[in-house]
Amino acid sequence: MLELSHVHKVYRVGAFGGGRLRAVRDVSLKVEAGEVVSLIGESGSGKSTIGKMVLGLFRPTSGTIAFDGTDITTIRGHNARKAYYRRVQGVFQDPFSSFNPIFKADRVFEMIRSSYFPGISDADWRERVLKAVGTVRLDPENVLGKYPHQLSGGQLQRLLIARALLLDVDLLVADEVISMLDASTRIDVLNLLADLKERGMAILFVTHDLSLGNYVSDRSVILRKGAIAEMGPTVRVFENPLHPYSRHLLSCVPQLHRTWAEVDAELEANPPEDVELPVASDDVSAPLLEAEEGHFVGIDQG
Amino acid sequence: MSEIAGAPGAADPAGGPEPTTTERKTSEVLHFAVRNPKLLIGLGIVLSLLLLGIFGPFFIDQDPNEYVGPKSQPPNGEYWFGTTSFGQDVWAQFVYGLRSTFLIGAFGGGVAFVIGTTVGFVAGYKGGIVDEILNMLTNVVLVLPALVVLIVITAYLEVRGVFIQGVFIGLTSWPWAARAVRSQALSLATRDYVDLARLSGRRTWRIITTEIAPNMSSYLVMSFILLFGGSILIAAGLDFIGLGPSNGVSLGLMLESAMKWSSLYLGMWWWFIPPGLGITMIVGSLYILNVGLDEVFNPKLREL
């Protein structure tokens, strides 16, 4: 459904725009309908940039982002863009800055109504809103008609997901949606995402948290310095990490029942087999090597 | 699990009906507004001069430039501000002059405000090449010697009215407003709610007017006040060098004729003091009003 091929994003940096920063390097990936794909990476790995490019908020420097076969960078005009957002929506990292502080929080629903459902009756719309708010397990009494500062981060975040539900989108870009939530709310939102997936919604789940990626996703993409380090079915990536960076990342996850010393000792005892990594022919490309079926490993960037 | 107990905001509404933000914000602003002497003094002077300019002329039967009385009379019961050396009523000229001074301020300031905010919002919101071009345009107009350009333009016009003067003043005085608005819009345009509005299929101008502008409304009000005062000053300068409205009366024109007919040497203080003091009071109290508004809107500047 969504297919990125050889997408690059280069920022100009420095006083006179002379410097170049390659935030996304030769990224190719696919998201199928009803599939959750995690983009996992550290800060600055380009994962949010990819999310924003899919949402059409940034333009890729080169490469194509195709949604159902149409390259979204060729979408021109307000109506075409509006039609695209009818099917693809995003939820951002910071719920507090996603709401205009001077308006009531449920204005995000009104905006959708005026843009996409102008003909619908008040009662009908009210019913839909209540249903969507109920689906994200919020009590309408508590959240509707309130200002953003009167609501918690978790409530705001779930209102944004309810907003995407109202549109019944095909693809949701969830950019670090849980990083601002406390642990108890976190699992709620994760379960909600799993429910959405059951309904056939594809989700591009951007996160820096390995365990969250493992929990929700069908496939995982580990990014490093803008390029894909490893990509494959989540189970394979987490059980059999091939790229040195993924191995390093996984070994950094604290484990409840083992100490660091035990983990290190075990790694020493059976060092993982080295895989031959692909070599980039120049500074910009980042070829992938298929190590096993559907499990790709990327270049080594030191 | 419908709601997380104890989550902030989910907290009990049992603590009494909480006033909504708008009400609270309005009443808070009002609370500080009525306690701010700068705002009250500035607003009081501006409003009373404005009312005088609006309603004063209705009580004057003759044309302000008509020769009505004895020449060179100091202020007296019949001619409150005295008469000029031609026998014109200075009081009549003063109230008519106030009216055209406010008109030029509103008109010149209005034109500059519309151009400045439009350019600033579009440049700040769009960014990229649009920003570059608009910024270049702004900088070019900013470094133009505005007064010289105005002198050249107005000198070429045969018939000069208040509105034409206002348009040209507006066309040359918008750049700093554009720059100020642009810098604010730049930072507001990166907020997530602006992105969310784009994802909601909103058009650019609606995002600017409904998402960005309301968040800097106090800033916009203050920009307009400063542009208003600036226009009055520029107009007075043009009038004083003889390029004012050719068919009316204004405070600047009064000053010009007072100077031209040597009122200073003849000791006719009643001729040049009212227009000079009028301009000073309008612009001065506008600036005091502006500082007062700043203190009301900006919590860091409030004196408690």
Number of domains of chain B: 1
Mean pLDDT of chain B: 82
Structural class of chain A: alpha/beta
User: Strand content of the residues of chain B, in percent?
Assistant: under 5%
Compute the number of structural domains of chain A.
Answer: 1
The named CATH superfamily of chain A = P-loop containing nucleotide triphosphate hydrolases
| Class derived from helix and strand content of chain B | mainly alpha
The total strand number of chain B stands at 0
Total beta-strand segments of chain A: 12
Q: In angstroms, what separates the terminal alpha carbons of chain A?
A: 33 Å
Kindly provide the name of the CATH class of chain A: Alpha Beta
Low-confidence stretches of chain A: none
Task: Tell me the layout of helices and strands.
The complex is a heterodimer of chains A (302) and B (304).
Chain A: E1 2-13, E2 19-31, E3 36-41, H1 47-54, E4 62-67, E5 70-71, H2 78-85, E6 88-91, H3 107-116, H4 122-135, H5 140-143, H6 153-167, E7 171-175, H7 183-198, E8 202-207, H8 210-216, E9 219-224, E10 227-233, H9 234-239, H10 244-251, H11 260-269, E11 289-292, E12 295-297
Chain B: H1 21-33, H2 37-55, H3 90-126, H4 128-143, H5 146-156, H6 162-173, H7 175-188, H8 192-199, H9 204-212, H10 217-240, H11 251-260, H12 263-266, H13 269-297
Helix pairs in contact in B: 1-13, 2-3, 2-13, 3-4, 3-6, 3-7, 3-10, 3-11, 3-13, 4-7, 5-6, 6-10, 8-9, 10-11, 10-13, 11-13
List keywords for this structure.
heterodimer, A: 302 residues, alpha/beta, Rossmann fold, 8-stranded mixed β-sheet, 4-stranded antiparallel β-sheet, 12 strands, 25% strand, B: 304 residues, MetI-like fold, 13 helices, 68% helix, 0% strand, globular, disordered N terminus
